[in-house]
Design a protein that fits this description.
The chain has 271 residues and is mainly alpha-helical. Helix content is 51%, strand content 8%. It has helices spanning 8-26, 87-99, 103-117, 126-156, 172-181, 197-210, 220-252, 267-270, and strands at 35-36, 45-46, 65-66, 70-71, 75-77, 158-159, 162-164, 185-188, 193-195. The strands form four sheets. It has a three-stranded antiparallel β-sheet with strand order 6-8-9. The chain has a two-stranded antiparallel ribbon with strand order 1-2. A two-stranded antiparallel sheet has the order 3-4.
Length: 271
């Protein structure tokens, strides 16, 4: 889900990602797993991300929304064997993320924020100004989602899904770095890994299109800032997707047994 937070402080987060994540990636193997050293250097190796769940354990079910609000249609279990999705499935992911009901109140909230800060002053104030800001905030989300999750992944043969690794074999720090790094690394339709062109080219295309309806922010620096903030927002949303099941378990299942069913499971599925 792409949201353009046009706030100056967010640019610092983008710089932080660009400086720290490449170094973190360098410490990984080609398969995205962390290198670990044993007592004997000759035993140093790589802990692979498991390709199948433990015997008797089903693939983890993913909630359709994070915190019950933010669309989460492109998260999948990264511990099971990779299976590519079709162009129609990529289109469906983008459409669901773009037109699910929470998109509309979120756009309204950001329109109110932009109105209060008088961003794009040519839009004016009052209901007319708010309506224009609401429309452009909604357009930002729809265009960003469709570009990064549907159109570019289809054209570039990349997979738009977020492959959650969970807590079975990884620390919180590793999972945080992994989630943030997915704006730089993606899977291809063949299952390989490469630079996430869909994320950056897709958001760049969205920013270019947005220049048509943002008359006050069409400079190169404004466009670069919007691109960086859009990608940083996607990185943050992936951290939420990675840890949301943990947060949900802490909130709702703290006193349950470890094998308690997820909230998304029906009673029949939990048996």
């Amino acid at each position: 889900m792409s949201l353009y937070f046009r706030l100056p402080k967010a640019a610092g987060f983008v710089v932080f990602l660009c400086l720290t994540v490449p170094g973190w990636l360098h410490a990984q193997g080609d398969d995205g797993t962390a290198k670990v050293a044993g007592p004997d250097p000759s035993n140093a190796g790589v802990l692979p991300v498991p390709q199948n769940p433990p015997e008797g354990q089903q693939p983890e079910k993913q909630d359709k929304r994070v915190f019950g609000v933010f669309p989460n249609y492109r998260t999948t279990d990264g511990t099971v064997d990779f299976r590519p999705i079709s162009p129609m499935q990529k289109l469906a992911i983008g459409l669901k993320d773009s037109f699910d009901w929470p998109v509309y109140p979120v756009a309204g909230a950001f329109a109110a924020l932009y109105q209060n800060e008088n961003q794009n002053p040519s839009f004016g104030q009052g209901m007319k100004g708010y309506s224009r800001r609401y429309g452009t905030a909604l357009a930002d989300q729809v265009i960003g989602n469709m570009m990064t999750e549907s159109f570019m992944p289809t054209l570039l043969h990349e997979d738009p899904r977020y492959f959650r690794i969970g807590s079975r074999r990884h620390s919180k720090a590793y999972r945080t770095g992994y989630a943030l790094s997915r704006i730089f690394v993606t899977r291809t339709d063949s299952g390989g890994r490469r630079f996430n062109f869909s994320e950056w080219v897709g958001n760049a295309a969205g920013v270019a299109i947005s220049n048509a309806y943002y008359p006050d922010t069409r400079t190169a620096s404004d466009s670069i800032e919007r691109l960086g903030i859009a990608c940083a927002t996607d990185a943050f949303s992936q951290v939420m997707k990675e840890f949301w099941p943990d947060v949900k378990h802490w909130l709702f299942h703290r006193h349950d047994a470890l094998n308690a069913p997820l909230l998304s499971e029906t009673p029949a599925e939990a048996k």
